[in-house]
Amino acid sequence: MSYSTIIEDNIDILVVGAGLGGTGAAFEARYWGQDKKIVVAEKANIMRSGAVAQGLYAINCYMGTRFGENNPEDHVRYARIDLMGMVREDLLFDMARHVDSAVHNFEEWGLPIMRDEKKGSFLREGRWQIMIHGESYKPIVAEAAKKSADKVFNRICVTHLLMDESKENRVAGAVGFNVRTGNYHVFKSKTVICGAGGASNIFKPRSVGEGAGRVWYAPWSSGSAYGLMIEAGAKMTQMENRIVLARFKDGYGPVGAYFLHLKTYTQNGYGEEYESKWFPALQQMVGSEYLDPEVSHRTHRPIPTCLRNHAIINEVNAGRGPIHMVTMEAFQDPHLEEIGWHNFLGMTVGQAVLWAATDVDPKYENPELTTSEPYVMGSHATGCGAWCSGPEDISPKEYFWGYNRMTTIEGLFGAGDAVGGTPHAFSSGSFTEGRLAAKAACKYIDDGKAQGIRVSDEQINRRKEQIFKPLETYRVYSNEVVAGSVNPNFINPRQGLDRLQKMMDEYCGGFGVNYMTNDKLLNIGLKKMAILGEDLEKVAASDIHELLRAWELKHRFLTSESVFQHTLFRKETRWPGYYYRGDVMKLDDKNWHVLTVSRRDPKTGEYTMEKAPLYHLVGEVEDKALAEMKAKGHH
Amino acid sequence: MPTFVYMTRCDGCGECVDICPSDIMHIDKTLRRAYNIEPSMCWECYSCVKACPHQAIDVRGYADFAPLGHSVRVIRDEEKGTIAWRIKFRNGKKDMELLAPITTKPWGSATPDLAKVPAPSKEMRDSQLLFNEPKYIRMDDGGLHTLKSNGLEIKEGVQY
Fold first, then answer.
1. Do the Cβ atoms of B100 and A443 come within 8 Å?
2. Out of A175-179, A480-484, A630-634, least confident range
3. Which pLDDT score is estimated for A147?
4. Does B103 have pLDDT greater than 60?
5. pLDDT in tens, B6-64
6. Number of domains in chain B
7. Which of B45, B62, B152 shows the shortest C-beta gap to A619?
8. What does pTM read for this prediction?
């Protein structure tokens, strides 16, 4: 192997993946560890990496306690109902009580936040969202992280975590390779904060061919947050809770600003309201605790996103599609029309390109909506991720083991998509989680928890051989055939990804089967996954770029396997509209009002599943309308 | 929508290669100019388009659903702190220019150096507070929210 080994030693805090979570961690770590060595390893370029690379037109998580708008517990209640009860309320409350300070820092750093001229507060898009001119959100935040870090290694694909050999289940750093030079990079570190991304492209996307990159979550979100942590044996939670998005067709342009700010609404292909007619049957499935249209109509409590998806899916299946977003009314106002376009340009330029290409002028035509393929992630409206400790002043004993946002591996912390049970964190909440993890990681080191870490050359060399194996496979076998991509000895990363996506779609509830699966399908899927796992040992890479894709695929595979296991474990249909267990079509609070927790044994690859208790914040209901309705017997 | 590079404008400087989040802008070894090596992994994020000093990179909508004949162009200017867009429809009936700010401060000037701020006290370390807190939570002298301050308990089981 001609690539050199570059060792970065004596790191205190290694940030793996510098999206919003990772930048928050790198930034804050310097304050609590002014003498500590802080290093960032990023797969792309920190100035445009992660899910916010393209920019954002809104910050979706801002309490506004400063303006008397919301308290943290209000946000917890909102996230709880949206996720059908399945959230970590200690982590959510903790994020929500800090998130405003992150946003106020962003404003000071130059992020243009729109103001409500009359009220003097930030311009609200919805109850939790504020509007920004966020084209440069990521580079602004990255500047702050760069200033805090000792070194930022761009273009390092981190493939594995390093584990301590003197104490079991303790992290010792990470390894990976430079996607430009091919060099092998070893980061020896006392702590690791995993800020890597959730997973796009594990379920077959609706788009085909060239358009396969037009996914809702970034195509470079390769499930590495989960791939890295699962492989090391960290416990994961809520991995069955994939998310399906109702978005503008093909371009997947965001609908939040359209619904909330522009006051557009949906109707079926024949111009009719369709949602309410699906609710009575749906209420039978999930119970009135989760769907009470009367309560949602009169109070702040939203109808859970998955249930609104359910209505779209069923209306289309009933033959009355497509679903349209009614824009023709709002877009008559030139100011709102401009906001509608800016909204895309700020965060999903492709939707603007698509409307320009198809001559869709929303002033004169109501654009089509669709439901996307599923995604597995933990910062938008779902909460997949690692099972992490909460803060000591909030968390019950089952949720607390010493350090905030620490996973079940000692010294390994999470932020953003990496942390499970904390949906609705979005960009600002992910950044906040990074800050919380950084403070806790500094404390972990100062408490002497990272002493005596040992990493042998054997471990380092074994990982190196493993990382570069796809190049070796290609070198050995490619000349056995005349030319082309068909080879009996290996598959390339694209072929492997196609196989994974097809399997996830057909057996794990993708769009191709209307999000339906059952125990039989999941068990067949798991058998096929095991064989795909064997074949991935033979994935081949013709160059370093393909080696990057090979490792992204392996992370996506580990993520997917976990999704299969969790989906099989939870014997109920908790989130109709995200997925359905055809064998158990009802929500079952008696048996499944719990969080699902898994662990994959790093030595054997075997999964163990368990139920973790679910705690809720209980206190006075501040929403007066809701309190009145509860007094009348509503939930 | 996948990007492409105009042959006569690209000088092979590599700015796009440096910035692309998906690692798909590469330099062609023979032509010494950039091109998109993997359009199916392009998110049309426009990072390369914005970074190109010669406006050599453009976007043509995905072949599987976007007809030809449209244009969405952009110029991002850090000095002016603005981004300027121009959208042209396929049928020529709509031609829009849109301008937005990207920052309110001279570029890169306003982020703090946390190595140089006063170190946190032991009391602060033992608290739940982060940098700039509690001040920055409400921009007043209020404290951090706790279960106690907000009259809350955390209880196991079905609680609705």
1. no
2. A630-634
3. 97
4. yes
5. 999 999 999 999 999 999 999 999 999 999 999 999 999 999 999 999 999 999 999 99
6. 2
7. B152
8. 0.97
Based on the fold, state whether residues B119 and B97 are members of the same structural domain: no
Q: A300 vs B8, which has greater pLDDT?
A: B8
Q: Could you tell me if B46 lies within 8 Å of chain A, comparing CB atoms? A: yes
Residue with tokens 């993520």: A559
Q: Which residues of A touch B159 (CB under 8 A)?
A: 616, 618
Q: Give me B49's structure tokens.
A: 């388009």
CB B61 within 8 A of CB A357: yes
Q: Which CATH architecture has domain A475-613?
A: Up-down Bundle (1.20)
Angle made by CA atoms B76, B80, B84, in degrees to the nearest 5: 35
Nearest-Cα distance to chain A for B8, in Å, is 24
- H helix count then E strand count, chain B: 4, 8
Nearest CA in chain A to B144: A97
Q: Is B85 a catalytic residue?
A: no
* pLDDT band with cut points at 50, 70 and 90 for residue A98: very high
**CB contact B124 to A (< 8 Å):** no
Please check whether residues B97 and B118 belong to one and the same domain: no
Alpha-carbon span A288 to A368, nearest angstrom:
31
Distances in Å between the alpha carbon of B123 and those of A451, A506, B119, B128, B130?
A: 24, 55, 12, 10, 12
Sign of the alpha-carbon dihedral angle for A486, A491, A492, A495: positive
Q: Does B105 touch chain A (CB under 8 A)?
A: yes
A residues 417..456 contacting B (CB < 8 A) = 435-436, 439, 443
Provide the pLDDT for residue A441. 98
If asked whether residues B95 and B134 sit together in one domain, one would say no
Cα dihedral across residues B29, B31, B33, B37: positive or negative: negative
Q: Are residues B26 and B91 in the same domain?
A: yes
Shared domain for B24 and B75, answered yes or no, is yes
So what's the pLDDT on residue A1? 53
Same-domain status, B124 and B96: no
Second CATH level (architecture) for the domain A246-371:
Alpha-Beta Complex (3.90)
| Mean pLDDT, chain A, integer | 96
B118 touching chain A per CB within 8 A: no
B125: domain range?
112-151
Instruction: Determine, for residues A356 and B71 on separate chains, whether the beta-carbon distance falls below 8 Å.
Output: yes
